[in-house]
Amino acid sequence: MKLSVGTVLSLIAATASMVNAHATLQYINDNSDVVRAPPSNNPVMDVTSSDMACNVNGGTPKSSVLTVAAGSSVTLEWHHGGRDTQAIDPSHKGPVITYLAKVPDATTATNPASLKWFKIYQDGLSGETWGVDKLVANNGKYTHTIPSSIPSGDYLIRSEIIALHAAGTYPGAQFYMGCGQLRVTGGGNANPPTVSLPGAYKGTDAGIQISIYYPKVTNYIVPGPAVFSG
């Protein structure tokens, strides 16, 4: 089939728009100094890659930590460009997830792929609304609680978006993740079950290799472990 010049140009523009609509974690409680920003907003697509932990630059510590009380709320904020841009292209539908990993000192912790992570939040599919839909509607922000029972000390927090618009085959799902540095105070003595990243996901997981449009998904299983409620 021969395409017209106008159609070709439209496809090029659409592709450029999709690339520009990739996303990065940029703020935690309005603080950007504690976020280990990746060098670009491109996704990771190989679930076995060490970049699955905290993205390409996630092993580079920052000098600051954000102090939060156990049981308090944190707000994580995503954008595809600067803060005045949308969170991520609305077509990139999928879940929004948060993990924590305990570390001796968040300002010196390297090699996040070697850490043990536990999931503290997930927002998958509710009716016809995805976690990403809510993120976009809320200007890139989502808020949840730090479990009140986890031990005090330093943590890396890992925020993740899994975009499923092209996930009918593997690799196809796009994984966007960013990590930040927290110091939790007033905690307890819980010992949450942990997983490794990479390791917690398989390319064949029902929530990773999935066609969300044909047939339209009505029941979605968020990949990874269960949420630790604390």
TrEMBL record:
Single GO BP term: cellulose catabolic process
GO terms for cellular component: extracellular region
EC number annotated for this UniProt entry: 1.14.99.56
GO molecular function: cellulase activity; cellulose binding
Similarity field: Belongs to the polysaccharide monooxygenase AA9 family.
Pfam family, one: AA9
Name the UniProt record assigns to this protein: AA9 family lytic polysaccharide monooxygenase
Keyword Protein biosynthesis: no
Organism: Ascobolus immersus RN42
